[in-house]
Please model this.
Amino acid sequence: MQSLDLPEPTEIEKQHSQKLHEVIVQAIHQAAGWIDFAHYMQLALYAPGLGYYSAGLQKFGEQGDFITSPEVSPLFAQTLANPVAKLLAELPNAQLMEFGAGSGKLAADLLYALNTLGQLPENYFIVELSADLQQRQYEVLQQRVPDLLPRVQWLNQLPENPINVIVIANEVMDAMPVTRFAIKNGEVLQQGVAVKEGELALSYRPAGDEVRQQVEALHIATTPGFEYCSELNLNIAPWIKSLAACINQGAIYLIDYGYTRSEFYSAERDMGTFIGYYHHRALDAPLWYPGLQDLTAFVDFTAVAEAALENQLDVDGFTSQGNFLINCGLAELVESIETKSELENFKLVQQMKTLSLPGEMGERFKVLGLSKGLDDNVPGFEVRDLRYSL
Model:
């Protein structure tokens, strides 16, 4: 096992990872000795009962491996509630749908804020495949907003018939399995996982036609003799297509860390964006104790916008999380909150800074607004709309 400067997993965690290791090895043997990296990532994150998001491990918050905007402060959901409430007021019989609700904190805070604004949806759908996370979300909602819990429904798949709905996906696309590739001396190679002497090992093969064609279409500037490595998310287009199909009228807010295509595949970013997280430490060792670390990659927002347009969705706005929250009234919200002490006020201001400043989450995270069948653009992009950069 690779030696890294990380907290040592417990014996129970190691045993858990070993079970997943055996599942992955079996998949590799069944595939004649090699699986694409996206297949490995799918198993590492989502293998039933064993994958990172499918098993009962602490993932979110200070005791987990990473922290999301809803975990930083209720200010995130309270601010997001403003444009959502506006859309709920304008759309007849509109429902709310959240993808991958994590700890359930965004759902709880958002429902509470919408109730305060007098704009509760009849249904708050949560699309969550992990039974473990469904249970955690239920417990958080039961604790924080018990009176609103009857409005929440968990779904394992999207509604079959189109509905009027506002969709929120916060840090969902970055957790989709990605295909990793390399360009060396003009040849496109595809990374996969094999087994060598009983251990998992990364290895490259000439890319399949689909991957090669998509990489060549990016026209990445490479240096002869040097290897350029990056990722493709081949799951985004079908996901956007399925989203578009379930919407009669509505809006989609996609919030994630990512870049426009020109930034994502720039010559300087020749090591890609893929990274793992374990106890708030970043590591580039995807085979280290599979199932114990989060595996993630930045989002190519240009690819998301292209998929939206191909599926008759309107691209209404694109900006940084900081700009989006300011557009939606973050500063006014903080100003309106009465704090009981200087310390409370200091903490509140620090939370606002973490969510919105460029050096914190404000610039790294982006927000893309999509819509279908609306007369006006979705709110939140009035100032510093960066769609021109996509």
About this structure: The radius of gyration is 21 Å. The chain has a mean pLDDT of 93. The domain at 1-390 is CATH 3.40.50.12710 (Rossmann fold).
